[in-house]
């Protein structure tokens, strides 16, 4: 059959057909309706006045499909009408419908839609079945949504039902949309799916395999703290993160720079540690006199899923001052990152006096405790240049053994980029105690850093609630 693209400014064409009468209605056979289903779909918005005639003529039960000869004529007529609709859309400024340069442009018309000579066609030949091949896997603990499709049906369905779905997933009876979140065990579930084909007035049932896999990155929730160590090998990543066994691609997200040395939401690598993206491994050891723990982010991708994985490295070196942490009145670990779960829909509000650090000199009590000073440097805010972090180590003051300070940090509503992924806020503090009134003065930061006896690095790992 020769197909020639016709571009005219004529209105949509409805083929007039003269049919003879028969005493018996033939049993309808599944046929290939070419562009006719696409024409009907596009006419709903581009030519609604022509829709009833299109459906009566070109629809699943239309007169076109009563003989091979009529079907061939209808194929050509539908192509001409669809091209005319495309020209109408171009003239009126409506979005294009039914035109294509590849099969991807036709995906809205079904899983078997194809692109032929610039127009979308649908394949309707064969036994009607629910499209199991188009059923994507479920990621445990993550929202799932998929609208079921039918191969070789009329295109109109209702009364959807499903048996054997993992707990937490449901199916919408009218649309066939499966949605929800499940924490059922990872496995392959045999699901019996049923729908009614309205156009052909029959029930279609298929058994589909639905894969449920662990959320990539979900394994972090079992770690304490929820971050990986620098010695983690590439072979261990898949098991630790709950992956599917396929290749994991890595990219260092840590974004320390000259203007933001401690990073801008993704932390920074400790001095002396390097990351090899090709092997997804770290090498080296921390080269710093500062005591504390660094946290930074590595972006990982597996099977199209991207997660932001925190890494932690502790520099447990001796310090002149003893650093003790109290959290809500109980002893805390000054070498552990602070875990902050936040609501991504509300402003940030961290610590607010719940954390207190006591810095004790080995020569206190005594004259050395007469004066003290400290300077702190925070990482840059990743959320908003107009509404950055508001950070304070107040209240602070002298003690019989040195000094203390607390922590209060507030910020804007997190940007969309951090609504479902962690962020890092890092802090470096230098402490000084002395019997001299000037030795620990902070007016000259460079001189103070030379005089300060202790350097301390700590980090907050922010995680959106539920992740």
Give a brief rundown of this model.
The protein is mainly β. The chain contains five helices and 29 strands. The protein has three domains: 86 residues, no CATH class; 85 residues, Sandwich (Immunoglobulin-like), CATH 2.60.40; 247 residues, no CATH class.
What do these coordinates show?
The structure is a single chain. This protein is mainly β. The protein has three domains: 36-121, no CATH class; 129-213, Sandwich (Immunoglobulin-like), CATH 2.60.40.10; 218-464, no CATH class. It is 13% helix and 34% strand. The protein is built from five helices and 29 strands. Strands 12, 13, 16, 17, 20, 23, 28 and 29 form an eight-stranded mixed sheet that branches. A hairpin with a 5-residue loop joins strand 8 (169-171) and strand 9 (177-180). Helix 1 (36-46) runs antiparallel to helix 2 and helix 1 (36-46) runs parallel beside helix 3 (68-92). The protein starts with 35 loop residues before the first helix and ends with a strand. The model is unreliable at 1-28 (pLDDT under 50).
């Amino acid at each position: 059959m020769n197909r020639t693209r016709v571009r005219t400014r004529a209105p949509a064409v409805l083929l007039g057909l003269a049919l003879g009468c028969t005493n018996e209605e033939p049993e309808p056979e599944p046929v290939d309706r070419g562009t006719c289903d696409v024409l009907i779909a596009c006419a709903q918005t581009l030519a609604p006045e022509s829709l009833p005639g299109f459906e009566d003529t070109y629809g699943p039960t239309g007169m076109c499909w009563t003989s091979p000869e009529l079907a061939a004529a209808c194929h050509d007529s539908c192509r001409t009408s669809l091209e005319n609709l495309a020209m109408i859309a171009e003239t009126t400024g409506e979005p294009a419908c039914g035109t294509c340069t590849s099969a991807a442009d036709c995906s809205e018309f079904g899983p078997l839609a194809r692109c032929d000579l610039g127009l979308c066609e649908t394949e309707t030949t064969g036994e009607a079945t629910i499209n199991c091949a188009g059923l994507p896997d479920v990621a445990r603990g993550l929202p799932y949504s998929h609208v079921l499709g039918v191969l070789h049906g009329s295109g109109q369905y209702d009364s959807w039902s499903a048996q054997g779905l993992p707990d937490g997933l449901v199916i919408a009876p009218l649309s066939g949309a499966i949605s929800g979140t499940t924490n059922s065990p990872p496995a392959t579930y045999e699901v019996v799916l049923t729908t009614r084909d309205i156009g052909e007035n029959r029930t279609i049932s298929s058994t589909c395999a639905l894969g449920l896999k662990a959320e990539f990155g979900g394994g972090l929730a079992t770690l304490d703290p929820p971050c990986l160590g620098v010695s983690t090998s590439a072979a261990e990543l898949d098991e630790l993160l709950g992956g599917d066994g396929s290749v994991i691609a890595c990219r260092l997200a840590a974004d320390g720079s000259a203007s933001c040395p401690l990073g801008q939401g993704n932390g920074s690598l400790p001095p002396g540690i390097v990351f090899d993206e090709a092997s997804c491994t770290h090498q080296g050891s921390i080269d710093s006199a500062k005591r504390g723990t660094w946290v930074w982010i590595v972006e990982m991708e597996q099977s199209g899923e991207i997660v932001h994985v925190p890494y932690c490295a502790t520099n447990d070196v001796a310090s002149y001052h003893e650093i003790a942490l109290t959290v809500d009145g109980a002893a805390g670990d000054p070498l552990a990152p602070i875990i902050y779960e936040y609501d991504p829909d509300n402003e940030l509000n961290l610590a607010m006096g719940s954390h207190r650090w006591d810095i004790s000199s080995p020569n206190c009590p005594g004259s050395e405790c007469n004066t003290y000073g400290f300077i702190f440097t925070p990482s840059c805010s990743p959320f908003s240049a107009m509404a950055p972090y508001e950070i304070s180590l107040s209240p602070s003051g002298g003690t019989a053994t040195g000094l203390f300070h607390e922590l209060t940090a507030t910020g804007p509503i997190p940007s969309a980029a951090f609504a479902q992924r962690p962020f890092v806020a890092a802090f470096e503090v230098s402490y000084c105690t002395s019997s001299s009134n000037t030795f620990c003065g902070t007016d000259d930061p460079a001189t103070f850093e030379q005089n300060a006896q202790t350097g301390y690095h700590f980090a907050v790992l922010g995680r959106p609630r539920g992740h």
